[in-house]
Design a protein that fits this description.
Length: about 350
């Protein structure tokens, strides 16, 4: 198995064949598997459920809190291992990763506009998404990953400093939280600017605002000796801010993200990280392998689940009972697993030198 295959599997981009030296971090795969399973469930609830279950709505809200930040944390952790820990930055592989995330955004975004919003497919519509003039819902978060990795590559020296210096990382994080506090939600923000710092015209996942979570993942990858009790303590303390705000009846805005939303989502990500390490040690191998397989193909699951739900929602939008919503969720996950199972990696011809 090549180094590129190992990196792609860590990043959730497929190519998950088991290496001869089994030294990969399976806890990270389990965490991504949990996040994928949760995000697909939340999307299924939001698209198909007739809102007959307050428990499902509450679960969907929690999943919304943890999903993007959890994936970004994993992305930072995996990118440190695959890219930024190396003396020479593998530029071509970074560009390949960014292109996959961007391509997923374009495919998923166009599918939503054509299948759900019934917009006529035209070259103008395609270009509006390709040129980031239009950021369709349920797809915009994929663009954020492409932007984050490109910005990190351009600022590789700074990423290495921040991932190895907790004081600098905390200072940068506070600066980004201040930025989040002052970002206006007026609809006049240019989409590219909004994709970087936030705004009100689309459901932005601003790359710069959330970047401390990416860097926190890189920090824990660079400093694996950080005690678990510290991670749990920080996770509980920061996640509790959201819980206390919810109990007190204060709304915490997700778009654009308020500082409490960002900090609490980071705390939830840390708790997922610790939980995944525990699960990989305690779950039966068959159960953990299910999550590992999902985590190693997270981008495929996210795109294929979106496409499937966009189609199904044309006939069953917000009409299913909570029981049928869960059945639909199980069918979507099973369908994607089957599609990935029957997919064959092409073997291309190679030029023979005589």
């Amino acid at each position: 198995m090549s180094d590129e295959d190992v990196s792609d599997a860590h990043l959730g981009l497929g190519k998950s064949r088991k290496p001869a030296t089994d030294d990969r971090n399976y806890a990270l795969d389990v965490m991504k598997g949990l996040l994928v399973a949760g995000m697909v469930l939340a999307h299924t609830i939001q698209f198909l459920n007739g809102r007959d279950s307050s428990l499902l709505r509450l679960g969907s809200h929690f999943i919304n809190l943890v999903s993007f930040s959890g994936f970004l944390f994993c992305f930072g952790y995996a990118c440190w291992i695959a890219y930024f820990s190396r003396a020479r930055l593998p530029t071509s592989r970074i560009l390949s990763t960014a292109l996959k995330c961007y391509g997923a955004f374009v495919v998923s975004g166009l599918a939503l506009l054509v299948l759900l919003r019934n917009e006529p497919l035209s070259l103008q519509l395609v270009w509006s998404v390709v040129l980031v003039r239009n950021l369709p819902a349920y797809s915009e978060f994929l663009l954020a990953f492409a932007l984050v990795i490109l910005i990190a590559a351009l600022c590789a020296k700074a990423v290495r400093y921040l991932a190895n210096n907790l004081t600098l990382l905390l200072g940068f994080s506070i600066a980004m939280l201040v930025l989040a506090w002052f970002v206006p939600d007026a609809p006049s923000v240019d989409p590219v600017v909004g994709a970087l710092i936030g705004g009100g015209d689309f459901s932005y996942f601003p790359a710069l605002t959330y970047s401390p979570i990416f860097l926190a993942g890189a920090y824990l990858a660079a400093k694996p000796a950080v005690p678990t009790r510290w991670i749990v303590g920080i996770g509980l303390a920061t996640f509790s801010l959201f819980v206390l705000a919810w109990i007190a009846g204060f709304g915490v805005e997700r778009f654009p993200p308020e500082p409490i939303w960002i900090v609490s989502s980071f705390g939830a990500s840390l708790l997922y990280f610790v939980l995944s390490g525990w699960l990989v040690k305690t779950l039966p191998m068959a159960a953990s392998n299910v999550l590992i397989a999902i985590g190693q193909n997270s981008l495929g699951y996210l795109v294929l689940s979106n496409l499937t739900l966009f189609v199904v929602a044309q006939s069953y939008a917000r009409s299913l009972s909570w029981q049928n919503t869960l059945i639909a969720y199980a069918l979507v996950m099973a369908l994607i697993r089957f599609v990935l199972w029957i997919t064959v990696q092409p073997k291309t011809r190679r030029k023979v030198v005589l």
